[in-house]
Write a structure and sequence with these properties.
single chain; 366 residues; alpha+beta; Jelly Rolls; 6-stranded antiparallel beta sheet; 7 helices; globular; binds 1-hydroxynaphthalene-2-carboxylic acid
Length: 366
Amino acid sequence: MSIDLPSRDTDVSGELGALYESLARADLAPLWNITDQLLTPTPRPKAVPWLWSATTLRPLAERAIALVPIERGGERRVLSLVNPGLGGRPYAAGTLWGALQCLGPRESAPAHRHSPGAIRFVLSGAGVWTTVDGDACDMAPGDLVLTPAYNWHDHTNGGDEAMLWFDGLDLPVVEALDAVFFEEYGELQQPHLRPHNRSETEYGATGYRTVPDAVTEQLDPTPSPLLVYRWAQTDAELARLAAETDSAKVTIEFTNPRSGASVLPTLGCFMHRIAPNGSSLPERQAGNQVFVVFDGSGHSVIDGELFEWSAGDCFVVPSWAPVEHHARERADLFSISDAPVLRALGLFRRQTLDAAQPVLRVFQPR
Ligand code: 1HN
């Protein structure tokens, strides 16, 4: 956090001015001058509402595939979403990493592990698997794959097509806690079990679980043992819920089949389906969110600013910013949030607002 301390050249003079100078020289700050910056009535996230469009992201990903090899040192071909409110830090929001990762035909991203936990949501391509502690998880568009904290993971493209996926990590939270650890695996790839998708065989058939329309109440410090959530099941669950309700939007949270908690202790993953010409109720919540448009098109109003979106776009809803979504054609939005962290600390709040926001401005991509 950066706070504006009373500077030495303010018009405070005399003994009081001298006191402020002495305090600053002694590495002390007078709370009475900074209370209103510290204790704001509601959250004031530094991250701003922002959108990265697929029409910008995809050609850049293709250029990166052509020009930048993956090897030890670089390890990953990842374009991180840099929120312009964060002073150049490579984070989508103060608590969330969001990025586009691309893996070309026959490429591998070397095995490593770290204390931050990650999720992958697949956007396009075929033939890739991520090996998570020896379990090779096949990836296809719409699938969610988990690489929990400290799990060894490497990505392999065994096919002839590039694959693009969204990476979400809790890295800014782990960094804020001064708890980042990282380790390379001894080999480029881990040996993996055959057949692939062991966690899915073990937990997928009976354990695939979602929570409708909510952030799960359950808390669990251990991550989900199910490492992959398939699009076919997500789609079926959304269709089932949409058929049961009159609301234009249905939301599910992907959950740990053992405990019903969020998939990772630090990250929640959600899928939202909005009916054609449908609008969600305006709402706001404590904590940041990053959305990824999987399918369809429409717009969202975030803190009075209108963001047009279509498939492959990513956008940020900062903490406590009012948001409502409108679909033109039927839309499926994936999102991540830090809600499990806020819940664990008793800080989570959510509010549905009475009225749609007036649109004050329209987002102009750079
Ligand atoms: C990471 O390990 C991956 O394994 C992707 O694919 C993005 C961003 C920051 C730190 C570690 C990956 C990452 C990352």
